[in-house]
Structure formats: structure tokens, C-alpha cells
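fwd from M.: "can u put these together and see what the complex looks like"

so here's what she sent:
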Amino acid sequence: MKDSPANQTAPGSLALVGAGPGARDLLTLRAMQRLQQADTVFYDRLVDEEVLELAPASAKRVFVGKHVGAHAWPQDRINAVIVAEALKGRRVVRLKSGDPSIFGRAAEELTAARAAGIETEIVPGVTAACAAAAQTGLPLTERGVSDTLVLTTARCRAGDPLPDCARHAKPGTTIVFYMSVGQAPRVRDGLLRLGMPPATPVTIAVDVSKPGARTVSCGISMLSETIIQHEISGCAIIFITCPKYGSG
Amino acid sequence: MKDSPANQTAPGSLALVGAGPGARDLLTLRAMQRLQQADTVFYDRLVDEEVLELAPASAKRVFVGKHVGAHAWPQDRINAVIVAEALKGRRVVRLKSGDPSIFGRAAEELTAARAAGIETEIVPGVTAACAAAAQTGLPLTERGVSDTLVLTTARCRAGDPLPDCARHAKPGTTIVFYMSVGQAPRVRDGLLRLGMPPATPVTIAVDVSKPGARTVSCGISMLSETIIQHEISGCAIIFITCPKYGSG
């Protein structure tokens, strides 16, 4: 989507670019092209050293330091620096892990840029759930087994109601938890309370598509112990296909 | 994920490759590379003429004719020809619209190939929901508005229970319907019955990322009329962010 700049004489542009799950070769051709044409690249978690290298040597690279569970830069400040940079007439690429529209805070950055009359674009990317499924060889939907896919997070912030994963845990649904390793006890308890059998298989895809990528499996009742035992922290995708149980 | 071939002397391989939503430049670099190395490419809906052109001129191209709502080739037959081709020692690419793991029938083709001892791999792709969000500029999750994304289909087949989109239509959830244009009345009725306000905005992204891509919006109560009025058929993504209503 492109918005025409309002009344800038030398308007810059902002592209929110999905960088995919980490591996450089999981970038799209369009993402690579935007990087190659960038004057300035804003990034947070660096998914792959080689991704940033796609930008010209002359491009400015700005780390805006968002890690899971630790926001070194508040979102408002990120919005402000991105907008300021584009208003200098530069082609700004804001690199987002995965796809910008899924847990990527895209709306806030787009709104700020549009308000300043900056041309905006989103370049979609491979979201972590798809990369995790590819890595493990387990489908996210399967005929006769699962016809609905739910992407959610068990994380919450002060004042927000906790996303209730349990409300979506119906037979025929695959639930994928993003950024939820720290919330494993809450996920486990929520699902067990529904009557999900304790041995229901859960898959944990760690460092998907990156060096050291691995897959760990367990029953839902052992989710927390398994995460501790395998020293899994941060960058992992937890997924589970809800079997037929209870009243459905 | 790679499985070692069991006891083939000249084993071929099968890569289920996500072709993304249609535009050639929304292929990943890895997808492009697999196409360039392919001996045989199986495809169904041709998303972009240029995508197939990435395969070598010498590569065999086989149309296995799956269109929305019309399966010219039964899945069993597709499985059989893919396996037979790989067993000849060929590098087989099975091109899938979007991401292979989401509504891509990946499990059936992988199971058939693994049973035959064929090395398999999934190359993830950009799924239609992400491309639709990028095209329309509307996020799929948004802080304080939507923290869960549901990908589903309102389609059904004989003997299957209809996927009940209503069970996932909770405040704070964005629901994306794939391949559901023909089921618009069912979607509308299901959501209205829940007490969703008739004016709740619905976005219909048509021919996402392809030539002629367009976006149409309406209130949920007008979904069917809008689809007819704009002559939307087949390739469209319908999405809706559930507002706070009813008991939640």
C-alpha cells in the first residue's frame, strides 16, 4: 500500500520490511531489494548478520534495541526517530522480525509516518509459525485434523487483560504461541483446566531457521519442566494441535 | 527438516515450496533457489507466470490442476505422481500458493514421500493473510486492539463439520478467512448471531499482490451484497477485527 506524500518537497519514505524468521535466504526478493535501496535501516533483534549486509555500505544502520521482554527504546521514541529520518528525504527501511503485521507493532509506526505525510509501504515476510512448521515438518492445518490456526501470545502488560489462550483451544485448532516461553506455566495451566489430556503433544521450535535451530517435544503437562531442562529461553515458538476432548 | 532417504540408490528429493501470494518478488530467496535447481515442478494455481520461469528451461513442468472449489486432480493422484517422479532420482519442487503448512495439504504429500523413503523439505512462504495486511495497510495484531490472529476457512466438505468461525470471534481477535468468498452468507450470519454490530468493518483483499489487486470494505451485514456488487470471486481474503461486544 502506498500513500501519496502530502506536501513534502523532498519526501522520504518508510518501508516496514518483514525480515522473516532469521535466515537470510528466507527474506523475500522484495525485502532484499528494499534493503539494497535503503538510505537508513532501523533494526532491533538482528536475525542474521548477513541480512543487514544487504544494505549499501553507505547506509546508516540504527539499532533500536527491542528484545523480547526488554524494551530498551520505548515505541514512541522509535516512531519519532523513524519519522525524523524519513522527513530528511531518506528511504527508510524498518526491519521487522517475521512479518510486520503480526506482533510487529506496525500500526504505531505507520500511523506516525502517515501523520507526517510520509509515503509508507509494508513488505510482508515469513512469519515464525510458518518457519517453525517448515523446520519441524508438522503442518499447521491438516485435513480432518485441524482447520483453524490461531497465532497468539500468552504475554501481557500492566493493565491489559491476559490473552486467554484457552478460549481458542477447541478441537480442530492449532494454536501457536509467540514469545511465550516465559509464560509456559500459564499456558499449561490454561489448557489443562480445559480438560486437555496431559499427554497432548506440544512442539517447541527453538531459534527457528537460525544456526543451532532445534525442536523439542513433550506432553502439555511437562511444558515448563521441558523448557527448563532444555535451557530454552527467548526465541522459541510453542505449538499444539488441540485434540478432540471435553465438550468441544 | 530433512529426512535421510532409507535405502534408495539414486534417491530424488521433494521440496514443498511456498510461492507466496502471487507476485514473483514475494518469493523467498530459498524458494527461488529450489526452483532454479528443480528437475520437475508441480504446480496448481499459477500465481505468476514469472515464478515458473525461475525453473531451468529443461525442467519438466506439471500442472496438477487444483483450483478453489474444483479439484481436477484428486489428492491421492497428486501424491502418487510426485512420489513416482522423486523415485526416478529427480529434484522435485511442489509449488504451493502462500505457505505450504497453512491450508496447503502439506501433510498428505509429505507422508506419501516419507513412506517412499524420499528426502523431504518444506520451504516456508508468505501466507495470504500477511500479504493482504501489507496490501491494505491494516495490521493483523495491534496493541490494545487485537492480540490474537485466527486463520480459518468457512468452507466445508461432505461429512466434515463446518468450521465454526463464531467460536473464535472474541474481542481482541482478528479473523482471516481463506477461500471463503462463496461462504459469505454463512460467515455473516455466524458473526451477526453472536451479537457483532452489523456495521463492524470487514475488509476484502482481492487478488492480493497480483495485477489488479484491490481492497473493498463494508459492514459485516453487507458482506454478501458487497461481494456480488464488486464481482469478487475466488481469490480473496476476508478479514475482520472483532470489536468488544456482547459478553466477550
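replying to her w this: The radius of gyration of chain A is 20 Å.
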